[in-house]
Design brief:
By secondary structure, the protein is an alpha+beta fold. It has two domains: 39 residues; 88 residues, no CATH class. The chain is built from five helices and four strands, in the order ααββββααα.
């Protein structure tokens, strides 16, 4: 079942403004559960952020709970960014850092760096197409 996340977030804000905090908290919990389920369906267990085809490299990446399958487990480092295309893993301290690395795989994955340097890399092609459209 697909839901309109923006509409649910609007309702949560409206309930909070109206003083219906229990209702808002319940709806927020249900939304988090739904979003977690959608991410885990796409990216597997422990997935918190997923990129199907990265703009820089065209690869599949994600941010995961470090205890999740495929991430390896380091109890003192709770998060991991994974490039599934090249099986590269970077362990980091925060979810924000893991999301950043998943969005920018050239920061931690050597094969992605090589991909991004090619003249026909996805980001180069997109920027070239955009520059042609923007010219007067």
């Amino acid at each position: 079942m697909k839901i309109n996340v923006a509409e649910v977030k609007r309702r949560i804000k409206a309930y909070r403004r109206a003083g219906m905090t229990e209702r808002a908290d319940s709806l927020a919990h249900n939304l988090r559960t739904y979003q977690k389920g959608v991410l885990e369906e796409k990216g597997g267990e422990g997935c918190r952020y997923y990129v199907e085809s990265n703009l820089e490299t065209g690869t599949t990446t994600g941010a995961y709970d470090s205890g999740a399958q495929g991430a390896g487990y380091y109890p003192h480092i709770p998060w991991a960014a994974i490039c599934w295309t090249h099986a590269s893993v970077a362990h980091v301290e925060t979810l924000k850092a893991a999301k950043y690395l998943a969005a920018h795989p050239t920061e931690f994955c050597e094969p992605c760096v090589d991909l991004a340097r090619r003249p026909n890399a996805p980001s180069v092609v997109v920027l070239h197409a955009m520059s042609k459209r923007l010219k007067p």
